[in-house]
Amino acid sequence: VIPVSLESNQEQRLGEIWPMVSVASYVGSLAIWACAGGTAALVLGLFYSDASYSEGIDTVNAAILLCVTFGAAMCLFLPFYGFMVGLITKYLYVGSFVGTKFRRDSYSMIPYWTVSCLIPFARELVRVAFGGSFLETTYYKLLGSRIGTGVFMDSIYLFEPDLVHIGDHSSIGLSSTLSPHQITRSEIEASRLEIKSRCSTGFGSVVHGRDVMEDNTMIGGTSMPLIGTRMKSGWWYGYPAERKGAVTTPRRPPLPLWYLFLYNP
Fold this sequence. Notes:
The chain folds into two domains: 1-130, no CATH class; 132-248, UDP N-Acetylglucosamine Acyltransferase, domain 1, CATH 2.160.10.10. By secondary structure, the protein is of the alpha/beta class. Strands 3-6-11-14-16-17 form a six-stranded mixed sheet. The protein has helices at residues 9-54, 59-93, 109-130, 134-143, 257-263, and strands at 100-103, 146-147, 152-153, 157-158, 164-166, 171-172, 177-179, 181-183, 187-190, 193-195, 200-201, 206-208, 212-213, 217-219, 230-231, 234-237, 242-245. Keywords: Membrane, Transmembrane, Transmembrane helix. The chain crosses the membrane at residues 23-48, 60-89. InterPro entries: Trimer_LpxA-like_sf.
């Protein structure tokens, strides 16, 4: 675990080295991917070129097949590439995010800024391709978030995963932002963000560090509470989000007789 808030001489030296290493690793990985893609395109081009002569496939159809095949390969490869790059970058350069506070003009800002810029690059590949599926939840679990069972995520923006805690049977809506950090004029603070069980966030809602959503709490779309708000059970809406009422639990419909007969013969 490497805290990003220490300001010792060692941290200062690492703060100067990390950005260069991070950028170099990404440029290198992208170069490798470009070479691999170019090689694959060349091989496929030669294959379809030979096929066009030997099997009577005209040039137009060969080009279409080449584009479709190469496009499918990219669509399958890039999300898993982002999946792995995000994991490697996070654990190699950060380890675990911890609750901390540091000045914006300190050396700690350098590695923090570098990682904060590079990890979302990989996250976008995962979010777009796997958003709304169990793979998105699995990805954030592997990054260090504590996520309960039956949690649904729909293409969300999640930062500092180690500081995000989500309870069971919660739903994080489309394009919601879970941001444990908050930036002021002079410093950056990262704190724990907690969403308990059976909670939901609407489209485009934002939850920050030090915010707590109690059990059975809902936040409406495009809503955000004041930083540090402890939201009690109910429906919250607006900016700053305010409690508008209680959450109504729908009555469970009676089970049909045929189901009861089969379940309890």
